[in-house]
Amino acid sequence: MARAVTNQRKALNTALAWIVGLAIFFPILWTILTSFKTEADAIANPPILFAFDWTLENYSEVMERSNYGRFLSNSILIAGGSTILGIIIAVPAAWSMAFVPSRRTKDILLWMLSTKMLPAVGVLYPIYLLCIRLGVLDNRLAMVVILMLINLPIIVWMLYTYFKEIPGEILEAARMDGASLKEEILYVLTPMAIPGIASTLLLNFILAWNEAFWTLNLTSVDAAPLTQFIASYSSPEGLFFAKLSAASTMAIAPILILGWFSQKQLVRGLTFGAVK
Amino acid sequence: MGRITLDKVRKAFGDVEVIPPLDLTIDDGEFVVFVGPSGCGKSTLLRLIAGLEDVSGGQIRIDGNDATMVPPAKRGLAMVFQSYALYPHMSVRKNIAFPMRMAGIDQAEQDRRIESAAKALNLTDYLDRRPGQLSGGQRQRVAIGRAIVREPAAFLFDEPLSNLDAALRHGMRLEISELHKRLDTTMIYVTHDQVEAMTMADKIVVLQAGVIEQVGSPLELYRKPRNAFVAGFIGSPTMNMLTGEDAAKRGADTIGIRPEHVTISTTDGTWKGTVGVAEHLGSDTFLHIHPDSDPSKTMTVRVDGEFTAHHGDTVWLTPQEEHIHKFDAQGLRIK
Asked: A80, A121, B126, B204: least CB-packed within 10 angstroms?
């Protein structure tokens, strides 16, 4: 018998879920609201939630002061480039680990994941020096490669778990049916793996988009993405709260919209394999 | 044509030799069943023939040509997997067409073969469905259809019926036997179910720990098992095995007697015992009897369905001497 769930209990759970959901969303909402306030309203105490004079002046000022388009195109290039490059490298890696594992495959996977446990700042110094030596500080291509390397373990892991779910017998059947390795990958594996590849692409695009540590430390002007755009409006005194919020809203808006439209795909990718 | 010869074929995974050098010939048009307990190497042997595993030594010949190093796609064999292994993103029609598409067969011929396979397998109404929308039996038929259209030199079946329920399994067994009669193509069939082996095979290969224990027709194996393992494995319920005084008296280490070769009486006989469980199948009844000499043992006796016996009844058993199988200390049959 299923657990007896009363309506009252259901209502309580729903309310609780809404509260938690709103609490998580609140900082984003607050940022968006603040971006429409005047600087004075933004720092008003007690804070004003809705009853303020709505204004777009922050946006126009931000647009005037900074070249949003350049930051945006850098973000798209760095996030998109690193994700695509990562997928190209991760697909064969995940493929071989899922379908022709060796005795050490599990160890390699864990080792790759362990690189994510290292605090990034621990390797900042060598990577920074390396960038200087190679003359690629504030270079878009270098950022593509670095962010790809940062996210590669996650891409490989995600694809690996996804490929693991594809029964090896289906690939063997394709082999028996006369498919060459290329045909096997093209006609059987890829169509079956497309949902997994898509959600991996999406998640890693978001991760790379939001990545702030490396982009803030290794770029300044030429390769600066939207994270630098936000940072340029932060000041320790907090005098430009409204403008900072406007910049933040402009930086997160594209990814928020992308995430909203692809949430189904994203949730599926993140929970895939949890339930067969 | 589909004559398959295994010449000292050997398979090892690392240091573990799962199949010691083994010789076997499968004649064209034969229905051969590999049977044995799980882990006996029967599936591995099939996969070696298919080319899905590489041999560690020896040679595989198909119609006289060395196929040892030939990739699976080029061996001209078709395989039906236990899990069906259908392509979930393709319709039934595309699944069946896939091997022909890979072989570059023209569209008209593809359509003709699909129609004829679908008709033979009762799949005509389902051609545009996805595998996910089919029942287990239908899926298995699609897998068979995909194998048929290739017109292979031999069909390989890897426990194809073990995912089906009992009623379907019986139906599919008949369908596969029927198919073999119609196509007259070599079929190699792997199963752990000795009933499938007995009912379908022209030739049974009994395997244990990668070693062929016996090769022969179902009735040969049933009547003249080469050793105690085969005697115990083939036949259901299994053969009664006795050691000690009863065996020594007949000049053997172990003697075996099938359940239908024991005569039962309520008055007198060779062994006295007590009825434990009676399984009534309608036409037959299997009585599980604990002999008084050693009540921890169980002897199975097959009696007519009309014979009534209940738990705790005392009965007498007499073996039919001409049907007693004798085995020596190594378990080998004494002629």
From this structure: A121
| φ, ψ for residue B294, nearest 5 deg | -155, 85
Interface of A with B in 150-179 (CB under 8 A): 167, 169-170, 172-179
How confident is the model at residue A269, as a pLDDT? 60
Dist. CA B183–CA B29, nearest whole Å: 9
Rounded CA separation B204/B61 (Å): 20
Chain B contact present for A180, CB below 8 A: yes
- In the chain, the amino acid numbered B85 is A
In this structure, chain B runs to a length of 335
The stretch B163-168 carries a mean pLDDT of 84
The parent domain of residue A127 ranges over: 67-232
CATH code: domain of residue A172: 1.10.3720.10
User: A58-72, A251-265, B165-179: lowest mean pLDDT where?
Assistant: A251-265
Q: Is A46 on the interface with B (CB under 8 A)?
A: no
B113 interfacial to chain A (CB closer than 8 Å): no
A179-193, A224-238, B254-268: which has the minimum mean pLDDT? A224-238
Bridging pattern class, strands B154-158 and B186-191? parallel
DSSP 8-state symbol, B297: S
Gap between the Cα atoms of A171 and A184, Å rounded? 7
Residue A118 lies in a domain: yes
* Contact state of A167 with B85 under an 8 Å Cβ cutoff: yes
Q: How many domains does chain A have?
A: 1
| Residue A114 and residue A264 in contact, taking contact as beta carbons nearer than 8 Å | no
Query: In chain B, which residue's Cα lies nearest the Cα of A179?
Result: B102
Q: What is the pLDDT of residue A186?
A: 82
Residue B89's closest chain A neighbor by CA? A192
Q: What is the pLDDT of residues A132-177, one digit of tens each?
A: 999 999 999 999 999 999 999 999 999 898 888 888 889 999 999 9
Contacts of B138 (CB under 8 A, 6+ apart): B123, B126
Q: What is the helix, strand, coil percentage profile of chain A, to 5?
A: 75, 0, 25
Residues 6 or more apart whose CB falls under 8 angstroms from that of B122 comprise B141
Q: Which domains does chain B have, with CATH numbers?
A: 4-232 (3.40.50.300), 237-327 (2.40.50.140)
What confidence score (pLDDT) does residue B12 get?
A: 92
Q: Is residue A12 part of a domain?
A: no
Q: Find tokens 């990577």 and name the residue.
A: A127
Tokens of A51: 């009853």
Q: Give the mean pLDDT of A107-129.
A: 90
